[in-house]
Write a structure and sequence with these properties.
This protein is an alpha+beta fold. It contains 2 helices and 7 strands, in the order βββαβββαβ. A 3-stranded antiparallel beta sheet has the order 6-3-7, with helices on one face. Strands 1-2 form a two-stranded antiparallel ribbon. It is globular. The two termini are 24 Å apart.
């Protein structure tokens, strides 16, 4: 969002839309390779006690394998989705 000041100078205002995207991990398909939580997006994914990927606790909703992430984390989560050899991650 851009706002004009009285002198006609424009400045960009920070806008928190509060938008989120859903993320799910199919624990039956996940091989526990670690690409998502070690390489691609450790801010969103973590290694579970069983070695299978899970969402970081702050993003979990309804279980360790499903939840919602803020828009500023979508890019790295999608990189993890693309890198997952088991296609176990779904973002969106």
């Amino acid at each position: 969002m851009t706002q004009s000041t009285p002198k006609g100078i424009s400045r960009v205002l920070a806008h928190d839309s509060g938008m989120t995207s859903k993320v799910t991990i199919d624990e039956k398909e996940c091989t526990g390779c670690g690409l998502c939580y070690e390489d691609e997006c450790p801010a969103v994914f973590a290694e579970g006690k069983d070695g299978i990927s899970m969402l970081q606790p702050k993003f979990q909703k309804g279980g360790v394998h499903m939840g919602e992430i803020p828009d500023d984390q979508v890019k790295c989560a999608k990189q993890a989705e693309d890198a997952c050899p088991a296609t176990a991650i779904k973002v969106g």
